[in-house]
Amino acid sequence: MLVAKTKDNLKKCKCMSCPSYTLGCKIKNMPENMFKLLDDLDNVEHYESMFCAFEKSHCIDEDRGCLCETCPIHAEYDLHREDYCMKTGGTLAHKCLMGFDDADDDLTKQ
Ligand code: SF4
Ligand code: SF4
User: What is this structure's pTM?
Assistant: First the structure.
């Protein structure tokens, strides 16, 4: 099931509390994230949080732990992965049936 790009879902997302979401990335992304909240998130292509609903981050690049499995969205949408900030995977176009979407990524080799 695709994760709906709603503000209610965004409130449940744990990414902002995650150790992988560094302070530097939060500071860098805060203005744009705030600006995009003024619009209907369904019209937003990229957002720097709730990565299972949007796509991977343009800033987070190191796995320092992931809170996805503790997130209500994870259970509600029957997600089977974590680290959505580093590997796009919650959207239909990238639905992960046999592994990660980018075959050249190191995560596929683990
Ligand atoms: S997807 Fe997982 S690792 Fe990435 S910021 Fe969210 S909770 Fe953290
Ligand atoms: S499953 Fe992970 S990326 Fe998706 S809303 Fe929850 S914490 Fe955020």
Answer: 0.84
